[in-house]
Amino acid sequence: MFTKNDTVKCILHNKNWKITEKNAQAYAPSNIALAKYWGKRNAELNLPANPSVSISLADKGATAIINTIPDPQDKFIINQKNVFGNKHSARLTQYLDLFRGPKPQFYQLELQVNIPFAAGLASSACIFASIILALNNLYAWQLKTHELSILARLGSGSAARSIQHGFVEWDKGIRDDGLDSFATLIPIRWSEFCVGLCIFETKEKAVSSREGMQHTEATSPFYADWVEYANQSAGEIKSAILQQDFLRLGELAETNAATMHSTMLSANPPIRYHTQQTLDHIQQVKKLRQTGLKVFYTQDAGPNLKLLFLSSDMESIKQHFSNIEIIQPFHAVSL
């Protein structure tokens, strides 16, 4: 069976492990899936059961600063706080174990993250993407974008989509080794496209995305139906993006999210990520749409909602959602 170590060896087999940049750093954006990833064809390699499509969140994400240290264990600093001995540091250690080099190196890793952790805002995606980008700078590997996407995927599946800015498609691939499963940029700049973050909860969710995904796969009688639907939906969503058909995209993305959450509810026992605030905001979005406002929602594995709309409706959105944080992905970064 092909392992994560095998993947790393394939990509880094002839690469240099000499440090070329002290305190190397890199930034990666968080991303919001419009066509969701919920289920794996290979859990070891984080290979998805279906393709997915996302939009990056520009300056919302993580910056990783990394260097080697002489200590016999890694040191982690997250948002200026030392982290040791919890599940987050354990997961970071497991990822860095893949990149020790021929003469085992240990690292000091500082992460600066400007979104809530484990609250349905893809914090793990931007964290693992930023780490591999920083390692690429530390050793001057000069990896190709698709290689970085593959290596980021080993830390968190959705991290495959956080290597680049803009609309991104993650191909599920068909190979057992997963070397054909990586994310690529969808070649379009849609400057009017906006994402609004409606954050109700910043605390860590009770059921992680990884746990929720595994539980849904194992117990939902409708999981196979979700996979079939999701494989088709991703292509339709990509097509709507390329055509800049906002109404079609909004309808498809909203239905995709609702279908994913319905599949979770069919698990035994059901998984519920929504709160009353989530449901209230969903109803508000639907009522506003009936009045002619072109706004849609999407929801990931957490209670917080993301609204989709165009910049021409920004002022109306602000009036109806007072605490919303609006991101214009193609204005905040140079693509």
Walk me through the structure.
With 335 residues, the chain is of the alpha+beta class. The protein folds into two domains: 4-185, Ribosomal Protein S5, domain 2 (2-Layer Sandwich), CATH 3.30.230; 193-332, GHMP kinase, C-terminal domain (Alpha-Beta Plaits), CATH 3.30.70. It has ten helices and 13 strands. The model has no long low-confidence stretch (mean pLDDT 94).
Structure characteristics:
Alpha-Beta Plaits, Ribosomal Protein S5, domain 2, 335 residues, 2 domains, 4-stranded antiparallel sheet, alpha+beta, 7-stranded mixed sheet
Shape: globular
Give me the Rg, rounded: 20 Å
**CATH T-level topology of the largest domain:** Ribosomal Protein S5, domain 2
Q: Extract low-pLDDT stretches.
A: none
Mean pLDDT: 94
This entry's quaternary arrangement is single chain
Measured between the Cα atoms of the first and last residue, the distance is 39 Å
Count of separate DSSP helical elements: 10
CATH architecture of the largest domain: 2-Layer Sandwich
Protein structure class: alpha+beta
Topology order in helix (H) and strand (E) letters: HEEEEEEHEHHEEEHHHHEEHEH
Name of the top-level CATH class of the largest domain: Alpha Beta
Strand content: 15-25%
